[in-house]
Amino acid sequence: MNALLLVGSPKGRKSASCLLGSILAEGMRKHGAMVSEEFVHEGLRSEDGIARLLDSVDAADLVIFAFPLYIDSLPAPLTRLLERIAERRARIAPAGSPRLAVVVQCGFPEAHQCGTAVGICRLFADRTGMRWAGALAMGMGGSVGGDLKKLPGGGKNILEAIGMASESLANGGAIPEAATAMFAKPLMPRWMYTLIGNFGWRMQLRKNKARRPLTYRPHSQG
Amino acid sequence: MKALVLDGSREGDALTAVAVLGMTSALAGRVDVVELVKPRELAIAPCAGCFGCWTRTPGECVIKDDARDVVGSYVGSDLVVYVTPVTFGGYSSELKKLLDRIILSVLDPRFTVVGGEVHHRLRYRRFPKTVGFGTLPSPDPEAERLFAGLVARNGINAHQRFDVEILAGVTDPVSARRSAERLLDRAGVSA
Ligand SMILES: Cc1cc2nc3c(=O)[nH]c(=O)nc-3n(C[C@H](O)[C@H](O)[C@H](O)COP(=O)(O)O)c2cc1C
Predict the structure, then answer these.
(1) What tens digit of pLDDT does each residue of A55-100 get?
(2) Which among B93, B142, B146 is the nearest to A116, CB-wise?
(3) Is the pTM above the cut of 0.95?
(4) Which among A34, A136, A190, B16 is placed 20 to 30 Å from B78, CA to CA?
(5) CATH for B2-186, options being 3.90.180.10, 3.30.70.260, 3.40.220.10, 3.40.50.360
């Protein structure tokens, strides 16, 4: 089984998307799958890069999009790739029908805020002759980074959910509903996440020696 | 009153061109100024996800290109119209690359609760009224439902209701204008 992990965060290797996607990929490799990784933003910088991305999608039995929620949907470059894949698959009748699975996380605490983005990916699969293989969606993405074991509860729900998903995907199945539900469980109480977040923005501002307050309005509204 | 129309059409997209025509002619009778921005013709780098517009130069993106200039226009408008081909239920990549670069600049990073969910505060006193005007080659209930859901969710992020209208298989500017009028009526944009 030949799988392709497409990381859709502009932060590349430093992103929460890449971290979660890589854990999934590692789990799949343990179950005998071959998984390669590509970064969408990098690939889209040149026509050669796009061609390479499109070729690797064509060659895959399973494509996994790992991305952050941007404005309730997909980041622009990933959207661009969807358009390009659809164009290619409409032009040259594709030999196979790869499966598509999704790992998405968002900055707000509620996992359900990723729902529209998951719907977009699912419709894309449906319209391009790919087969839907489920999604893992979570909120509180702002706290995902570095060592997941340091998260409250040791990141147990995330790791267990990805474990279940990777086994099933590697064996030709879809992401089990139980994995989706477990992945969506909040990492911490909502008040705690927002408290840490609000504090974090101010800390960042200070660290960056910003010369404006957080609430600065550079434009007038007449 | 000023309206900003964001034309998210892709190269060779005649349907969205008709929608833009219908919308601008409907607006002409209702607002004083219509500004048309076509991201496809602008130099816009994708959002780098760095949050510099919150924690380095609050309210302004750290990338200096055409997208940064649109923010002032966005903030100074009373109405913003997203015109876009409905792309698997979402926005086109052309519209999205611009929106990704605008949105955080008009929000205040601090969290607040809207409709029972966590969202951000708004940076400016007034957030422009926003409507979504999507195009499809033919009726497509699933894509239409997703698109309406996306526009509505974007509205929650802006603490208001965003109205939406979809033009499915409409190729004549007169019908496009009629739909645009309907959308503007619903959104309460009157002369
Ligand atoms: C332009 C932009 C738009 C975003 N829009 C949303 C959003 O609509 N809802 C949300 O919950 N988070 C949103 N976020 C937050 C990201 O989803 C969140 O920070 C995520 O953890 C980033 O993941 P990454 O490290 O993989 O890039 C947005 C971030 C950016 C930069």
Answers:
(1) 999 999 999 999 999 999 999 999 999 999 999 999 987 778 899 9
(2) B146
(3) yes
(4) B16
(5) 3.40.50.360
Q: How far is B136 from chain A (nearest CA, A)?
A: 14
Cα–Cα distance, A174 to B36 (Å, whole number): 44
Cβ(A15) – ligand 1 distance below 6 Å = yes
d(CA B24, CA B5): 8
A90, A109, A66: which is closest to A196 by C-alpha? A109
Report the candidate in B132, B116, B121 with the shortest Cα–Cα distance to residue B158: B121
pLDDT tens sequence across B145-174: 999 999 999 999 999 999 999 999 999 999
Q: What is the CATH number of the domain that holds A87?
A: 3.40.50.360
SS3 label, residue B44:
coil
What spacing in Å lies between the alpha carbon of A76 and ligand 1's midpoint?
12
Q: Is residue A208 part of a domain?
A: no
Residue A200 is assigned to a structural domain of this protein: no
Q: Helix, strand or coil for residue A70?
A: strand
Shortest distance between the Cα of B108 and any Cα of chain A, in A, equals 6
Nearest residue on chain A to B72, judged by CA atoms?
A: A219
Contact B46 A127 (CB under 8 A): no
Q: Is A146 in the pocket of ligand 1 (CB under 6 A)?
A: no
